[in-house]
Amino acid sequence: MADTNTTRPGATTGFVLTGVGLGACLGALTNAVSGRISPTYFRNVMRWEEINDIPRAAIAQGIFEGILFGLAFSIIFVIVVGIVARARCPYWLGVKYLLFTVAAALVCWMLGGLTAMGLAALSPELFQNAFRGVPDEFGGMIRYAWVGGSIQGLTLGGLAGIVVAAVLFRAKWRTMVEEHSTGANS
User: Fold this and answer.
1) What pLDDT is attached to residue 9?
2) Residue 101 and residue 99: Cα distance in Å, rounded?
3) By CB neighbour count within 10 A (0-12 exposed, 13-18 middle, 19+ buried), where does 148 fall?
4) What is the DSSP string of 90-149?
5) CA separation, residue 168 to residues 46, 129, 155, 162, 163 (Å)
6) What is the pTM (predicted TM-score) of this model?
7) Are 51 and 90 in contact (CB under 8 A)?
8) CA–CA separation, 124 vs 126, rounded Å?
9) Cα Rg of the chain (Å, integer)
10) Burial 37-46 (b: 16+ CB within 10 A, else e)
11) Which of these, 28, 162, 169, lies nearest to 92 by C-alpha position?
12) Which of the listed residues 71, 103, 157, 184 has the most CB atoms within 10 Å of its CB?
């Protein structure tokens, strides 16, 4: 059982650095896939008409955005840890919840992409009129939909994941504190 009385400021710094690193990796991974699936999406939405290697540029963009989202979500997590555990959370415990957030974001990335593909297939006309630069050809439209939907899924999944992780962390921390105080009194 972890000591719940020792302040660990290094762990909270580690959570931010780990969150930024995980965000960068997640952005690189997901954009590596999406940049190959629909370079047209990036060319049209990001206005990358002059970029020749769109899949490579998409990875760089994913790393950049992943760093920003990783920083934002890890700061939220550090605030929760700071309030709930008063900066006493061991690094290994907090990282479990950051990894949970990554897993949730990845699941939502896939669900977002699949949902957008389904909506585009259901009403191609609506999809093409609702979003900028959607290809007319069905296969191109479906690939375009995957990228747009998966990006939204990743972002919303990360946000939902960090909220759920914070709630689960709070419950776990309370249990650990109770067990520690009960064990100390026995």
Assistant:
1) 86
2) 5
3) buried
4) -HHHHHHHHHHHHHHHHHHHHHHHHHHHHHHHH-HHHHHHHSTT--SSHHHHHHHHHHHH
5) 37, 41, 20, 10, 9
6) 0.90
7) no
8) 6
9) 20
10) bbbbbbbbbe
11) 169
12) 157
State whether residue 48 is helix, strand or coil: coil
In terms of residues, how long is the chain? 186
pLDDT of residue 180: 82
Q: Can you read off the two tokens belonging to residue 42?
A: 């990036």
Are residues 63 and 27 in contact, defined by beta-carbon separation less than 8 angstroms? Answer: yes
Per-residue pLDDT tens listing for the chain (186 residues): 567 888 888 999 999 999 999 999 999 999 999 999 999 999 999 999 999 999 999 999 999 999 999 999 999 999 999 999 999 999 999 999 999 999 999 999 999 999 999 999 999 999 999 998 999 999 999 999 999 999 999 999 999 999 999 999 999 999 999 988 887 555
The amino acid sitting at 181 is: S
Q: Are 23 and 67 in contact (CB under 8 A)?
A: yes
User: In this structure, are residues 142 and 117 in contact, taking their beta carbons and an 8 Å threshold?
Assistant: yes
Place of tokens 């920083």: 71
Tokens representing 39 are 């370079």
3-state secondary structure of 129: helix
